[in-house]
């Protein structure tokens, strides 16, 4: 069996006409108009706006990201990995960056010099151009998606094994009650993130010295049912025999219930809850329809600016909120952009520039630390700290749980070259993943390629990877990849082409 026989024929990207052209046009207009009305104009009308070269750079970044989102909406292909990067960059970097630059204000209260602000804007532009160029260069020659995806032989060469999938699903269901009990039970998991933290602290799984044990427990408890549901859902969509079994439907219902308990947005980080929902959405073939994709991209990108800040209502328990009655009260959407650390990613990029000036390059230590996240500090006493910690310490910010986007990760390690290289690597990887996923969309096949489930999972988790920090983000992506490989196998007679 060849690689081509394992996967379905590559679908032909349709030419968008009529409504399929007008709707993305309307959506693209909204991407420009809504931020202008809600964020940029209020700052300009306040009479306190600052204009300069940095404003031009951030404005260019805003137009660039909006343009790339528009072009992807008009595309006949569903490029979820690329869309994840551009949505994050548009909302959390470009729009937030231009707003904060105009107001000369940011959630961390850091005052940047004009030179720092200009280099911050230039670094953002460098990163998005590096990503875009690498993304285009990594495509198949002559637009032949099949030849481009062939270089990802393992993604199309491994296929989902029904027996392994069912074993993983039932294992998740059987062990689920144990994980739920260790995390505090359903009442805690449906209460708040603070309640889960308190429960793990009281049980000794979180301590003043390390949260590794509790973090590992939470990671497995989150990833196991998510991966099991994702793979089972795709397998049932493609395999009639699996779909015909009553026991499979029972397992599906149990996995849905388990995910509601352990992966809900009440007791989990919003980014992770989104990753679970988006992963299931991306795996659904209907999500690739142009009209749906345009509406989804627009709603998600703009919702990230207007709805996202309100979704942490369950982060703290009632006692904590009562002790801080003034916390989190903002009158306008622009107030969130300027004062809430949800939109601190662009600020952290600026802090990385300042860190580079004061500390110099780390020469790859931070990337090495992320790659070896699994090595305990008891064995590696001088293991690099989370990059976000370095940035928080640089400006004396008490809460070290801040972001460290890819721009900051690369710049802290190797300056401008490091940022460009890291974003270029991300662009090339996204293109390869999207090309491989394109070959799985033609319709039900005799076997479900690994790409059909791995790409949705990685693309959904991409928001966390791009946001950073990498060290903090590596555990979940590693567990998901291991589980996905475990439920797949190479069919008899398989050989890799290309």
Automatic annotation (TrEMBL):
Keywords: Membrane, Transmembrane, Transmembrane helix. It comes from the Bacteria. The keyword Membrane applies. The keyword Transmembrane applies. The chain crosses the membrane at residues 21-44, 51-74, 80-98, 167-192, 212-232, 244-262, 291-311, 414-433, 445-464. Coiled coil: none annotated. This is Oligosaccharide repeat unit polymerase. It comes from Pseudonocardia sediminis. The lineage of its organism: Bacteria, Bacillati, Actinomycetota, Actinomycetes, Pseudonocardiales.
């Amino acid at each position: 069996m060849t690689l081509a026989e394992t996967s379905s024929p590559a679908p032909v990207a349709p030419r968008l006409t009529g409504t399929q052209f007008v709707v993305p046009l309307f959506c693209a207009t909204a991407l420009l108009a809504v931020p202008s009305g809600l964020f940029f104009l209020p700052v300009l009308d306040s009479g306190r706006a600052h204009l300069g070269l940095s404003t031009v750079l951030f404005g260019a970044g805003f137009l660039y990201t909006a343009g790339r989102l528009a072009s992807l909406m008009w595309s006949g292909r569903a490029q979820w990995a690329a869309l994840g990067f551009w949505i994050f960059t548009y909302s959390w970097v470009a729009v937030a960056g231009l707003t904060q630059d105009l107001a000369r204000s940011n959630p961390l209260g850091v005052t940047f010099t004009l030179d720092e602000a200009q280099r911050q804007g230039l670094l953002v532009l460098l990163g998005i151009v590096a990503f875009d160029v690498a993304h285009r260069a990594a495509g198949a020659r002559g637009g032949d998606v099949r030849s481009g995806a062939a270089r990802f032989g393992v993604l199309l060469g491994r296929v989902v094994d029904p027996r392994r999938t069912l074993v993983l699903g039932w294992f998740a269901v059987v062990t689920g009650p144990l994980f739920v009990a260790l995390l505090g039970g359903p009442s805690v998991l449906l209460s708040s993130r603070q309640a889960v933290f308190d429960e793990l602290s009281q049980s000794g799984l979180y301590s003043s010295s390390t949260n590794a044990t509790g973090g590992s427990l939470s990671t497995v408890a989150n990833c196991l049912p998510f991966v099991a549901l994702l793979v089972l859902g795709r397998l049932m969509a493609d395999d009639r025999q699996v779909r015909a079994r009553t026991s499979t439907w029972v397992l599906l219902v149990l996995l849905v219930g388990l995910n509601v308990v352990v992966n809900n947005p009440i007791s989990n980080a919003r980014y992770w809850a989104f990753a679970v929902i988006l992963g299931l959405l991306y795996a659904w073939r209907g999500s690739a329809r142009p009209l749906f994709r345009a509406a989804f991209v627009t709603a998600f990108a703009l919702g990230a600016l207007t709805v996202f800040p309100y979704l942490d209502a369950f982060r703290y328990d009632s006692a904590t909120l009562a002790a801080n009655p003034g916390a989190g009260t903002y009158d306008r959407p622009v107030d969130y952009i300027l004062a809430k650390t949800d939109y601190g990613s662009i600020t952290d990029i600026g802090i990385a520039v300042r860190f580079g000036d004061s500390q110099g390059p780390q020469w790859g230590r931070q990337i090495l630390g992320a790659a070896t996240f699994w090595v305990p500090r008891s064995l590696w006493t001088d293991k690099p700290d989370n990059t976000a910690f370095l940035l928080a310490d640089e400006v004396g910010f008490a809460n070290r749980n801040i972001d460290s986007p890819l721009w900051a990760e690369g710049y802290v390690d190797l300056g401008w070259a490091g940022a460009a290289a890291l974003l270029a690597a991300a662009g090339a990887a996204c293109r390869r993943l999207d090309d491989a996923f394109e070959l799985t969309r033609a319709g039900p096949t005799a076997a479900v390629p690994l790409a059909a489930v791995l790409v949705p999972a990685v693309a959904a988790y991409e928001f966390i990877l791009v946001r950073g920090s990498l060290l903090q983000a590596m555990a979940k992506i590693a567990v998901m990849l291991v589980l996905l490989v475990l439920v797949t196998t190479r069919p008899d007679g398989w050989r890799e082409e290309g």
